[in-house]
Amino acid sequence: MAEFSIIDTYFNRKAFSSVDLGVGDDSALLSPPPQQQLVICADTLVAGRHFPLDTDPHAIGWKSVAVNLSDIAAMGAKPHSILLALSLPQIDHDWLKGFSQGLYDCCDQFGVSLIGGDTTQSPHLTISVTALGWVDTGKGVLRSGAQVGDYICVSGQVGDAAFGLNHRDHPLKKRLDYPTPRCALGQSLKDLANSMIDVSDGLAQDLGHILKASNVGAQVELNQLPIDIALKELAQEQRWKYALSGGDDYELCFTISPANHTKLLQQQLDINISTIGQITENKELCFVQNGKTKMLKFNGYQHFA
Ligand code: ADP
Ligand code: MG
Fold first, then answer.
1. Cα-Cα-Cα-Cα dihedral of 27, 33, 39, 45, to 10°?
2. Strand locations in 4-77, DSSP E?
3. What is the pTM for the complete model shown?
4. What are the structural domains of the chain?
5. Counting ligands in written order, which one lies closest to the CA of residue 118?
6. Which of 133, 138, 153, 258 has the fewest CB atoms within 10 Å distance of its CB?
């Protein structure tokens, strides 16, 4: 019984009108819009691994949705709904209240409905969210589309969340706890970008995924990396480490032809875009500073390293 009362109390708010049938039956029902492809992804957050154990439950709820909407955005798609698989060690009503509020706050901000899920007891707090969205058929922006000569761009700032993790009293901690999925930007890039990824494991590693999938290389100008003033005060080595291998920023990194780059910068966007380099033919990721090559070897976060 406890399971059903948890669902009814915390996870059964009315869905947006684009949902035919939400929480309550064996499955949810949706009507895909014509000429659209379903875009679908899942991400799991494990307590103690993906967030510190003392994280505010509201922030955990927000983040568990945000990281998935970020993956949807990185395809150039519009988010529509989520499913929530929740494994709880015990029933803690204060925690559930904060968590569900954070989850719905993020859903509401981006017009997304919670349409179903699963609730189980387990020794570890684990939150797995599946997100669904739509994109015009054939318009999804893949990692594999980068072209030699493309500009490489990144939204917002990188390194903030990793800095916040190590400086828990600093305002940048908010960037760790409440990442903003770049949903509007992602959708406006579907007709412009050649390739795209969201930066979850550090810019160097995530840009590396684009390079590998596209069979190209890149030259990145370190001085163009968009970093917070707090990082600018650090020694160079430390600064680039945060900016290039710090995870959890959930910004979008994309490559775009020079012609579309001009078009993009003419648009009114809700987020700053930095142009950090160019796609090259040689298959390496190389960093330069003031025209000089810098040897840096940064890896992003690896789960089984
Ligand atoms: P079943 O036994 O048929 O799998 P459940 O009893 O697990 O169904 O779930 C009942 C309903 O509640 C379903 O519609 C399911 O999608 C939904 N649900 C279960 N857990 C959650 C949750 N944590 N968040 C949202 N919906 C949930
Ligand atoms: Mg059933």
1. -50
2. 19-21, 29-30, 36-46
3. 0.95
4. 2-136 (3.30.1330.10), 143-294 (3.90.650.10)
5. 1
6. 138
